[in-house]
Write a structure and sequence with these properties.
Elements: H1 13-22, E1 28-32, E2 35-39, H2 44-60, E3 64-67, E4 71-74, E5 80-82, E6 86-90, E7 100-101, E8 108-112, H3 119-133, E9 138-143, E10 148-156, E11 161-169, E12 173-176, E13 182-185
Parallel strand pairs: 4-7, 8-9
Antiparallel strand pairs: 1-2, 3-6, 4-5, 6-8, 9-10, 10-11, 12-13
């Protein structure tokens, strides 16, 4: 259970990992806030957004890589398990880490919303808390439903998330602060929404 005291976990982390290991490759499971979550599969637009972001990040910092589908131990006490759409870390960082890596050394996690009824609860509420408690420096949420990009920075596990949150509408320029220090032009994201 996380320090949030929301509810009793549905199962132990060990039980979750056993279920996740037995799931078919077409199913992505996460364990956030003590709840089993089924992550909706990527669509072609979501994949295109991630490819564009990958190119942008690598141009700004070629010593980094944007990993997709990387499992992370998250939340206070590392009792959660998340599979962000993308994880920015130094090249080769996850070698030898197994299926669920510690978040130490991760610079940024990225989520691109799926058209899913659980988006608000998970991507906008649960994951900022989980990633902030894990002290991951940046959480970038590309929210196709709201047509916004939200940059969460300055993690603070004591407040249960991030101290600084900046949201911009698609079409505006967004500053992603240190450790990235890049500016994203979000105009192109208008092409990847329903």
């Amino acid at each position: 259970m996380t320090g949030r005291g929301e509810r009793t976990p549905q199962m132990s982390v060990r039980e979750f990992e056993e279920i996740a290991a037995a799931a078919p490759e077409t199913v992505t499971l996460e364990f956030i806030g003590g709840r089993l979550e089924v992550k909706k599969g990527a669509d072609s637009d979501r994949g295109t957004v991630l490819c564009r972001l990958h190119r942008h990040c690598l141009q700004a910092a070629p010593e980094l890589d944007l990993y997709q589908g990387r499992g992370l131990r998250v939340e206070e006490g590392r009792e959660g398990r998340a599979r962000p759409d993308a994880v920015l870390a130094p090249r080769g960082h996850f070698a030898g880490h197994g299926e669920w890596a510690e978040p130490a050394g991760v610079l940024m996690v990225v989520e691109v919303t799926a058209y899913d009824p659980d988006t608000d609860r998970l991507s906008r509420q649960g994951k900022p808390t989980a990633y902030g408690e894990s002290e991951i420096p940046l959480y970038l949420l590309i929210d196709r439903d709201a047509r916004t990009v939200t940059v969460h920075s300055n993690p603070d596990r004591h407040v249960g998330g991030y101290r600084d949150v900046h949201t911009a509408k698609f079409g505006e320029k967004v500053l992603v602060p240190g450790p990235m220090d890049i500016e994203l032009d979000t105009e192109i994201l208008k092409n990847y929404v329903r």
